[in-house]
Amino acid sequence: MANDFQVIAPMARTVADAKLLYDLLAGPDPRDPLSLRFPVEASPEAPAAVRIRLVIDVNGEPVDPEVRASVRAAAAAIADVGYQVDVGSAPYDLEAVRAVYGLLSAAGAARVLERFPKWRDNVSENVATIGATGLELSAAQYVNALDRLARIRAEVAEAWQDFDVLCTPTAATLPSTIWRSPPNHHERLVTWVTRAPQENSATSLPLWKAGEVTTMS
Q: Is 86 in a helix, a strand, or coil?
């Protein structure tokens, strides 16, 4: 429902390979009218003095100690090679984002589910609840959510004038196992994962293993 509520991007083993993929994908495509606004030329070089903001807390939301420690260590390593890293706040209001995301997610689920007459018998309880909520939304509610999203985008764009790079966890919690998910795991996960329209996530990097899993930033 809003392309920048998700991050779909190439995956590569090295920075050089990732850059090669981005260069191939960059620019407009005549098959996608929305892409025609993108410039053909390559992105400008990074400024000589890159301003990095470290954000680990968003509205007091919990972050696993292992995740917090690994991101802080990554920021310290960046600072050690000469970059300025300052701790700061997230450039958005999490509750405002959640409100818009919840409404647009419900509308998106309803758009898909209504194509199938017996969808209620073939989806999980959670998906059924989200879909039912979306089907009850009015056109005015949907358009108002798009208006709120546009305001959030504008506010975040203005906030980005104060820094060049935002360093955050990719997710606030470690991955769950296939057999067991900790309480509120999904809610803690999406606090960071669904922030894409606000921070326009560019790169997720593996930092190091925390037990049997690898933390990302």
A: strand
Structure tokens at 148: 């709120």
What letters, b where the CB count within 10 A reaches 16 and e where it falls short, cover 172-197?
Answer: bbbeeeeeeeeeebeebbebbbbbbb
| CATH class assigned to 3-216 | alpha beta
DSSP letter for each residue of 137-201:
--HHHHHHHHHHHHHHHHHHHHHGGG-SEEE--S-SSPPPPSS---TTHHHHHHHHHTTHHHH--
| DSSP tag of 30 | T
92 phi/psi in degrees, rounded to 5: -160, 165
Beta pairing partners, 53: 86, 166
CB atoms within 10 A of CB 101: 21
For the stretch 182-216, pLDDT in tens is 556 556 566 565 554 444 456 666 665 555 555 45
Sign of CA dihedral 47, 49, 50, 51: negative
| Site of tokens 């194509």 | 115
Q: State how far the Cα of 132 lies from the Cα of 122, in Å rounded to an integer.
A: 14
Q: Where are the domains of the chain?
A: 3-216
> What distance in Å separates the CA atoms of residue 174 and residue 179, rounded to the nearest whole number?
14
Type of residue numbered 183: P
Q: Considering the chain, what is the average pLDDT of its residues?
A: 79
Statement: the pTM of the whole predicted model exceeds 0.90: no
- From the list 197, 217, 195, the residue with the least C-alpha distance to 207 is 217
